[in-house]
Task: structure prediction
Amino acid sequence: MTIQANIPNIVGTRKSSSTRIPCEELGPQKLMIEGGQRLHGKVKVSGAKNSSLPILVATLLADSESVVRNVPDLEDVNTLMEILRNLGLEIERFPDGAIRSRVVDNTPYEAPYEHVQRMRASVLALGPLVARRGHARISLPGGCVIGTRPIDLHIKGLEALGAKIEVRHGYVEAQVRELVGTRIYLGGAYGSTVLGTANIMMAATLAKGRTVIENAACEPEVVDLARFLNAMGAEVSGIGSHRLVIDGVEELHGADHTVIPDRIEAGTFMAAGAITGGDVTIEGVCPNHLMAVVDKFIEAGVSVDLSEPTTGNIYEDSYKGSIRVRGMGGTLSTDITTLPYPGYPTDLQAQFMAMLAVSGGISVVTEKVYPDRFMHVAEYCRMGAKIRKEGPSAILAGVPGLSGAPVKATDLRASAGLVLMGLVALGKSEIHHLHHIDRGYEKLEEKLHGLGAKIWREAD
Ligand code: EPU
Result:
């Protein structure tokens, strides 16, 4: 049975001012949404945050200048650039949007607590620093709202390459005279690790001899990093598979690279189109990166049209595809289980759960990447969803409608889920702790406003 959520038949008029007011003018902000508009139109996705971060860190591996294009303008990127400056990089965003980066000082080797606590991905500097400078001291990232997030696999990989690692006083310190390639199995209790694979792959590019990473993560963002490393002169093969082979080289040079589109942002807009019963075309996306997601949308009764590859070149096509999503008047219940790529991504769990909250019937959402990534459940329930958490799963009974409420964003993807809930809820929703969204979504409310959503920022 399908149940129609709160979607009026007539598309409402667009609110005139959705333009983001700079944080410094407003101080803390909240996001306001008046639900009930069917979204329609076209939206272009930005470059992938989770590709941009490791690729920018990889510029530590060479002295000459790299140019990284299509990097989204996000808090996380700005924070990382600040961290990299402290590590001896001259790194700037230019008016054309490209980031240029080059090493001007090869002596710093430390990322302190005040930086790492703002930016978990700074742990990525461990591999490049130890490979290039023989020494790295990085504050341990610790846990976060989506789980404990250990870095034991990063440490295991670097130790296998010959680095001497000490963990004390909240820091991980790695030292080595020369890294030496070896065979490394990089899997843990929850499967492969994305940043762990990135870290070890970067370190191995400058190691002596051959490194084989077994059970490597094969996420598109790892592929993108591997392609950037090869453009820098590295010799990485097996790209996109669970077995990466890296033949160490003497040195790397700068490269020019365009970051792949953000598949998680694309999936978020798919959910926005579907949950509002709208008709949304997402452009500049790679449908191949989203096949597990597309499959689940179709299972949930959403109409999805994918563009055909245009050039036949798997990499060139990555930037040029489109996905059209049409909500068919309410979604069907379905189950999802998050898994490493090419399975259903954990970073789209909260967004799909929002859609299931207003579907007809019972759905089960199971987390097999971050079993504790359910902080959004309590907030969803405040808006009228019926969800019970059971271990690493959430059981949902779809409701016919939601009601707008003040809610609190708990992490980046949870905040995107709350926005989706707000788009379909009756009345006004207020989303607090907005900095989570700014960490990872470029101009989210401007893009949604362009699709007809009533969404704007106010001082909080
Ligand atoms: N894990 C370990 N030991 C390790 C590393 C990971 O046990 O040394 C576990 C984790 O606790 C988790 C699983 O392995 O249970 C997978 O974690 P992974 O290492 O793959 O996550 P990550 O690399 O730290 C990246 C993304 C996350 C995304 C995950 C999974 C970046 C900057 N972050 O994190 O993105 O959820 O992969 O796909 O690329 C986000 O963008 O909102 C986000 C959280």
The first helix runs from residue 23 to 26. Residues 50, 53, 121, 147, 149-154, 188-190, 193-196, 217, 346-347, 369-370, 412-413, 440 surround EPU (CB under 6 Å).
